[in-house]
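Worked example 2:
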Amino acid sequence: MWSQMITVVLLLCGPAKAEPGAFSGNWEVTRIIEAKKGYQWSLEVKYPKRMTLELREGRLQGRYTDQWEYSGSFELVAVVNDGHDLLLVHQGGTKSPEALSPIHHVKLVKGKLHAVVTSHDKLFEWTAERR
């Protein structure tokens, strides 16, 4: 009975708080889930295939390599929501002035990064594991 109550409490509390350094490391995207069938998001939206996140002078910074083997740094790397969430925004612009830049909303769950990528709508999800 106590174990069931503890499980319920853990489920209600969500993922544990992560310190910025917990997101540090070399990561490889191992899974991508499309949100919109038929939308060629892989041609339109940059997504990281590999990335390195590291703590420098108390601030998390990151570099990535995308699906076209382009490497660059994240324009924004921010730990928010009292350490529960990481926001990543790619460097550079979009393919057209009307396009909305994607934002990667990341959580660290059981040692893996789980991201939902949005612009004005959910585009796709990805999961990354440490290399």
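DSSP finds two helices and eight strands in the chain. The radius of gyration is 16 Å.
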